[in-house]
Amino acid sequence: MPAEDTGSLQTLLLPRPAFPSYKETLDGAAEKTQALVLGADLSAPLEAVRSTLTKISAWQQPDSPPPPPLPRSVSAPRGVAPAPKQLTSRVVILSFTNRGALNWLWHLDRAIGRARFPTTLRMYVVGDETRQALVSSGLIPAECIRDGSVGTTLDASHSSKGFHYDSPGFNKLAAQRPRIILHAIKELERTAAEAVVYCDVDAVWKRDALPALERLAPTHDIAGSRDDYLVCTGFVMFRTRSADVISFLSEWEEKLSTGSKVNQYVFNELLKAQARKLSIQRLPHEQFPSGLEYFHKRRTHNATALVIHANYFQGQAAKRGKLKEAGLWQDVPHASQA
């Protein structure tokens, strides 16, 4: 497609096979199966234009039957990008659980609305029971659910049992994070998604955080919430179109492959080692506070918090108890009421 320099402006001629002129259409020079938009000569009488377009099946009266579909062999013309496989938001939320995360989904629904889940959420789960519980709840469409055992083998205990922090079982599940993020980035490569945000199920969405995350997505390779002096791996965003991010995630996955190391410490060691290659940003704690900041240091005002992560507390009972005390957690209503 030739470009012409006209002083301070640069013009670009659209490809003729995809965007033929009205004259090319009339003369038969345009290949109808490749044309996306047919130009019409509005200086001609309207009825004459409609008649011509009707003859080449490019115009229909309201009561006309639909035109026959194009042959399957027809593809987009050269130079015209194919349509994306699926529609997604600019930032897609990823989460991972080995048990029914109904409470977390209920709060996410209240923050962003479940109608947006198909374009904004990918839920990775371990075990058929977890999958069935999520689908039966009516809180999440089946199309949002993915197999959380990507790249490894998880036994029955990983699908139902809770594990203490830094235990072998906990570390093996936590080692799935880079695999899940890499899997999602690969799946989303032909979509509008500019970033994915990995979110633990103990990080409660109080309000819609997607607009704030979307503002950061184009400018930083990695943006994570704070966990004291570390970047927290339980709420962290990655650009989807960065070779440096893919390299970082692959190295993180490799270092966690034994299942014996704490994923967050390995993650932060890698961040320091690759700080010159990556654009790294800490998310503002006023909007994305850790449990320590929100419940103890009180740096964050209640009115500004978007997502509150209960990562300061250990054990699901302690986390949920503290969130309930602050009015941030509710037991899941019946699915029909949710």
Automatic annotation (TrEMBL):
Position of the signal peptide: none
Domain Nucleotide-diphospho-sugar transferase: 155-320
Stored PANTHER family: UDP-D-XYLOSE:L-FUCOSE ALPHA-1,3-D-XYLOSYLTRANSFERASE-RELATED (PTHR47032:SF1)
Annotated gene: RGXT
Full protein name: Rhamnogalacturonan II specific xylosyltransferase
Coiled-coil zones: none
Keyword Transferase in record: yes
Matching Pfam families: Nucleotid_trans
Location of the region described as Disordered in the Swiss-Prot/TrEMBL record: 57-82
Keywords on record: Transferase
GO molecular function, one term: glycosyltransferase activity
Organism from which the protein derives: Tetraselmis sp. GSL018
Gene Ontology CC: Golgi apparatus
Lineage: superkingdom: Eukaryota
